[in-house]
Amino acid sequence: MQKTISKAIGLFLLSIASLPLLAQTSNGTTGGYSTGATGSYTGATGTSSSDYCLDPTLGCSNNNQLGDPTNLMGNGGQYGNAIGPNYLNGGQTGTQGTAGVYVDNGGFTTTNNNQTMLMLPPQPITDLQRMARESTGILLPIFGQDLFTKPLSTFAPADQVPVTPDYVLGPGDEIVLRLWGHTNLNSRLTIDRAGNIYIPQVGTVHVSGQHMSDLQPQLQRELSRTYRNFEFAVDLGHLRSIQVFVMGEARRPGSYTVSALSTLLNAIFVSGGPTQQGSLRKIEVRRAGKVAATADLYSFLLSGDKSNDIPLQAGDVIFIPFVGSQVALSGAVRHPAVYELNGPASVDDLLKLAGGFTATAAGSRLSIERIENHRDRHAITIALDAAGLSTKLADGDVLRADSVLRGYRDSVTIRGNLANAGRFPWHPGMRLSEILPDRESLLTPDYWNARNRLGLPTPLFLPDPPSQPGSASNGAQTNTSNTGSPNNGQPNGPTDSAAVSTPTTNPNANNAAAAATTPTSTQNITRVIGATGERDQVLPSATEREGQSSVAEQQEFASDRLAATTSHHVDILIPAPEIDWSYATIERLDPTTLRNSLVPFHLGRLVMDHDTAEDKELQPGDVVTIVSQSDIHVSQDEQTKYIRLEGEFGSSGVYSVAPGETLADVVKRAGGLTKNAYLYGAAFTRESARVLQQQRLDEYIASVEREEERAGAIRALSSTTPYAISQTQDEKELIIQLRRLRSTGRVVLDFKSNSAGVDSIPDLTLENGDSFRVPSRPAVISVVGSVYGQNVFLYNGDHRVADYLRLAGKATRTADVSREFLVRADGSILSKQTVHSGLWSDNFASAAVFPGDTIVVPEKPVKPTFLKNILDYATVFSAFGVGAAAITVLK
Questions:
Q1: Enclosing H/E stretch for 223
Q2: 83, 329, 355, 679: least buried by Cβ within 10 Å?
């Protein structure tokens, strides 16, 4: 019994599979069932119609045999891999088919009425687009194609829209009849295939083919024959489905089952619109072998006119022919694109399609590139007058509307270091004094931004918050500017400094322009935020200050570490780059030769002295440039210079330097030195010297790195022990440490150990950003290195180097006593190699030690053993031997 049933089911499925499917696949082939595993459909079956309900916006009836088809993930039996669409409500889930069809409810309940339409693939560019791109440099779109590039947002049916009076009734439409009064009646009457409806106690009424506007009078007559004293209302319920065909140059041509309310535009949208080679202006609706209507979508696109959008009827064929003549329009028009011509057209007609010229169009001429007889291309230029606008267009024309010239006529431009840059109208006899009226006009917005920030509340000591690598904690914004310029158009507040992993200024520098970058690592550093909000300073760790060995620098570092935990840092800086009063210029273009020239003038004499000789007459198109001292380096006498005096001065602070004033002059103005001043340990730093030192240091480190790479390569070839690997790793670590070194810009002033008083200070010419630190006289000396007891000892004028080494326990076994050295309080070095010693005497051990000096005893470097050297030599010699033997054999 079971075998018989299985055979019957198999024959039934085979008969179903042999039925033709009318749904069109996306690749143009007819969809069908795959030969999947056996199974039965459990979903609701439709009526015996093989048409697919494809309209995404309109309702359908008389759906297909085996449930509802869809091109999405279906629930349609075991026929999921069919070329055509899959099916819903029929067993296990099928895979996505390739048919380009769409569904609405069609009168049946589906699992989802709002499914997303698949995106159509992009279309290739046409030859005219390619030629226009070669001429204009841009790819022009085909006008109207963007209307169909996006998929429809919903598949909701349009059954509930009002029915128009000219709607033609047909088989399958449902008429809702309500009658009240002497008799009550509420019926839903479906028009049968003969075109009739049956009304109880009235009989059969033929309504097919009538317009909706004629239905009310007809039913009035028919009901009056049976009923008296009644009123009634008639409406349409569920509408029938009709079959239409979309053919020609459509993106998805094929057969579509749509609601009877569907119009031409509905079908065009569902089919994906015309292809790149399809027409938008001559879309035909063919009905009963004749052209019922011709639609021009340009009227819909340009003015929203839907007068050509006629209702569809069963069997209508929507034919999209090949595109007609096309022209390309680019340049200063509102809608540059490739346009289709609907018959003969002029330049004026094309400009109206494109929305006319933009405000930047030249408006005097238009260029046309034309193909003659499919052979040659030539250029035409027409004037935009009545004759030019009436020029007829030809298929393949490429038009370009030029923009106005970029230059400004009868205007003068001023820019640079001033309050308000801009353009001024020129007039005959115009001079510089008209656009540079006073000194205040030369103060930049950056200057006032920096000054205004001085009044903001100052945050106290803020430690660096913990953060992940590459990210700022608590959403802090990275601030890489410390020159007082606005950040993103807004002045930087005091909290702008709360950032991590950013280059920061050297605490030794006074000007933000003289900032020295610190290593990128932010571990073990402390941020100090200045009251001005202009400097995000970092106190470097001890490893970053190895080069700062003078007593003044050591005392400054110690005081910074103590002050950073209890106070905030306040700095005095030049708010903005200052004006170059001796030079400004006029950039002028010769209207005859079109050659550029510069006309310099003295800004100070013009603005401050009102010198008429410097009040140059301006010409149209002149550009006046006011430069600052950051743009062009001026002489030292013209520069505004701030010098920092710190330590043992009568009045430590920041002082401005008058032209010709020296270091000794400024120190005298600051009240001289105190009685505790220790000039021998003083430190004088200069930014220009720091930059030069850092450049030389980087060059030296690069040469050391190259040398170590060569040495490492040689060791790798000649060594067979792990010693070479560890040695190479140690050298890499050493180079990394060298790269962390930062120069200090320290200039040695060559003070003596007994130097004292202002008269000992040299007459040194100063630069902006110089810093002079004089420490107090220290009472200790230090012994560090390979000794038994590294320590700090009280200074004793009778002790020598040997005496302090004896107090430290003397050198250990690993100490390299031949390379001991003494770091003087002024930062200079006295090494054992530079001191001449006799056979029985050691002059280094008897060298004098001054307050603040440091004695250093280095360790011996680790060298390869004798056996290791023998093995390396043996390896090299054996390699030579093997090579010589090979050469002998080859000979």
A1: helix 212-224
A2: 355
